[in-house]
Amino acid sequence: MPVRLSAVIRRSLAKRRLAPRYSGAGLLWRGVRNSSWPRVWREPPLKKSYDVVVIGGGVHGLATAYYLAANHGITDVAVLDKAYLGSGGSGRNTAIVRSNYLTPEGVAFYDRSLELYNTMSADLNLNVMFSERGHLTLAHTDSAVRTMRWRAEVNKLQNIDSSVIGPAEISRIAPSLDTSPNTRYPILAALYHPPGGTIRHDAVVWAYARAADAHGVDMHQKTEVIDITCEGGEGPDGKGPGAKVTGVCTSKGDVSARVVINCTAGWAGLIAAMAGLKLPITTHPLQAAVTEPVKVFLPTVVVSGSLHVYVSQTDRGELVFGASVDPFATYDMGGTLDFTEELAGHVLELMPAVSEMRLLRQWAGLCDITPDYSPVMGFTPVEGFLCDVGWGTYGFKAGPVSGEQLAKCVAEQATPELISPFALSRFDSGMLVGEKGAAAVGH
Fold first, then answer.
1. How far apart are CA 20 and CA 323, in angstroms?
2. pLDDT for 102
3. Which pTM does this prediction carry?
4. Pairing of strands 135-139, 218-220
5. Tell me, what's the pLDDT at 191?
6. What is the sign of the dihedral through the CA atoms of 419, 435, 58 and 255?
7. Within a 10 A sphere around the Cβ of 172, how many other Cβ atoms?
8. C-alpha count within 13 angstroms, C-beta hemisphere, residue 400
9. Can you tell me the distance from the alpha carbon of 386 to that of 54, in angstroms, rounded to the nearest whole number?
10. How far, in whole angstroms, is CA 409 from its chain's centroid?
11. Is 199 helix (H, G, I), strand (E, B) or coil?
12. Would you say 169 and 187 are in contact if contact means Cβ atoms under 8 Å apart?
């Protein structure tokens, strides 16, 4: 006797005692019944006042809002984004995570972020598809080998799993790489970082948004910040050093707030200028591309600083690769043929066997770069205005720890140790944190 599919689903739910909203059977049941899907987060009206306003609905902004609520009980928070959540750098990156940086300050900071990524699926109750697959940074010259050894020693002193390996070990880990000595750019060695890997970037955005919403945080999409209101500053409009933030003006109305946090990428300088501050930042496009899917053959992340290329393979089999930032400052996010030709040539120098794979699409994101390739975080000369900006090509890796530490900064009104080296004041004191050697094309 035939059994209706709906009856099978009902019995499955009763047996497993799973909530239909979250269970696999529940998802199928909604599809069969064609019933409406529950919203992952609310869409509340914009209030006239909040304790904290976070500008930018990417990983950094959402993580800051979540940790303010979850760790410190500050729930009267609004996250504002002029488009949709994750529409900026969080949705345009290549989803690589690691902690094998060059400076002790950077290593400690990114290692904490990697710890949070490792436990995120359980902490936020959503599978973010973290894949610990290892990270290879190739060296093609003697000077590059020296840099790899330098980074390895810094990493080891910080208890980071990182070491320099030779061509034979590289070939064992990534057999598709051409490690022969007769290539144009021979692979002499590599910095191997086993804890590195990839994570699903849009899942991270959804996880933080849903978790923040559960704590009462309001998220407002398609709400553009037009201006930041201040009083008591040195400038004729009451802004600049010595001023105090009073709120923001948005496309949906004015909002008063005691604290405003700039968590934008690409437009960080424009937002800071609204408060009367000038940041030492230039904005450059960063392009990336993806191929058609094939059987998985590249089990690790591969980076070559000398060739300005990085590549990994998704679980679906696509090769995702990118290069360094475009050499000119612009807000244009269109792809270019020059990028595609140069990138494809370098990928084929590393892996000649992929020559028959077809390129499906390419895209670009905006990167805010500081003179020392390190971010600007924490308090500014404008009271109540904080920054989490200037991330260059590596902001996604730092999303969790940035949110955690900036939330602590707001709640305790003191700069946490992990972010103290990245204060805006370092450009006046000369205490720079030079990360170019590990971050310029270090994905």
1. 44
2. 86
3. 0.90
4. unpaired
5. 97
6. positive
7. 10
8. 23
9. 9
10. 20
11. coil
12. no
C-alpha span between 299 and 322 (Å, rounded): 17
DSSP 8-class letter at 195 = T
Dihedrals phi, psi of 168, to nearest 5 degrees: -65, -45
DSSP notation for 84-119: -TT-SGGGSS--EE----SSHHHHHHHHHHHHHHHT
Q: Measuring CA to CA, which residue among 266, 274, 344 is closest to residue 311?
A: 344
Walk me through the domains of the chain, giving residue ranges and CATH numbers.
1-38 (no CATH), 49-123+201-281+372-439 (3.50.50.60), 135-194+283-369 (3.30.9.10)
Query: Strand, coil or helix: what is 138?
Result: strand
Q: What is the pLDDT at residue 433? A: 84
Beta bridge partners of 365: 286
- Distance between CA 51 and CA 36 in Å, rounded? 34
Q: Which tokens hold the place of 236?
A: 């004729």
Tokens describing residue 405 = 């530490």
Q: Say yes or no to pLDDT of 235 above 80.
A: no
- Which residues sit opposite 368 in a β-bridge? 283
Beta bridge partners of 291: 359
Enter the tokens of residue 375: 């971010």
Enumerate the H helices of 127-219 as residue ranges: 142-157, 167-173, 201-214
- Residue among 402, 436, 437 at smallest CA distance from 422: 402
Q: Which of 188-197, 259-268, 334-343 has the lowest mean pLDDT?
A: 334-343
d(CA 105, CA 264): 22
Task: State the pLDDT at residue 431.
Answer: 87
Quick one: which H or E segment has residue 257?
A: strand 253-262
Three-class DSSP category at 246:
strand
Give the tens place of pLDDT for each residue, 17-60.
Answer: 434 444 555 555 556 566 677 788 999 999 999 999 999 999 99
| Whole-angstrom Cα Rg for the chain | 23
pLDDT digits (tens, 9 = 90+) for 66-109: 999 999 999 999 999 999 999 999 999 999 999 999 889 889 99
The pLDDT tens digits for 303-339 are 998 898 999 999 999 999 998 888 889 998 888 999 9
